[in-house]
């Protein structure tokens, strides 16, 4: 098993990519702290891990809260005795409006969760990794952190910021045996794109606009995160791994 003896924190672990990663990491031997604002679904993820023989706990967390993120890392480290992997995955979309019509409240909500949440995950997670002798941080960005899309200004900006935060942290902590990478998913079939899927006119175009001609699955993104979390990626840091089916090339 690729994560035998490791302990991991996964934010946004109640559903989608976060749940898929929690299940996969546990299957590969990791003890997993599932963090999410949604307590019911987060505990369901933990139950699924237990049902497959894995070890997991749920910690209710708002990633935009500094005390919440500090508590998450403290509680996970205390429960497992160490921490080796931090997967900063929680994220949200935004209302589809033009930039000048975007409210400051909506802008701030998306930035707080998507960007500040990643910052806080590293601020309080990396010291725990250092105490364990090193480890791996994976941050969820998006192909929309690499290309623009109208009506999604805060989402674009937050996901681009994640990529730069990732590079910065990789430079600062590489010699301390902490690798920091990002993943950039394309169109992934999760609840986050539910509105897109309900658009019967445009969904066939959106879902097939890549080299593979289909949307990705949460499991496929989880496997990319597993690679970055494992020793298979021992010489990979400061990278942004596209998991987009060739969307940026299409």
- Total tally of structural domains: 1
How do the helices and strands follow one another from N- to C-terminus? EHEHEHEHEHEHHHE
C-alpha geometry: globular
CATH architectural name: 3-Layer(aba) Sandwich
CATH H-level homologous superfamily name: NAD(P)-binding Rossmann-like Domain
CATH topology: Rossmann fold
Mean pLDDT: 96
> What portion of residues belong to β-strands?
15-25%
User: Number of DSSP helices?
Assistant: 8
Q: What's the helical proportion of residues?
A: 40-55%
Number of strands: 7
The gyration radius over C-alpha positions equals 17 Å
Specify the biggest β-sheet.
7 strands, parallel
Low-confidence stretches: none
Strand order of the largest sheet: 3-2-1-4-5-6-7
In CATH's first tier, which class applies? Alpha Beta
The N- and C-terminal alpha carbons lie at a distance of 35 Å
Overall structural class, as computed from helix and strand content, comes to: alpha/beta
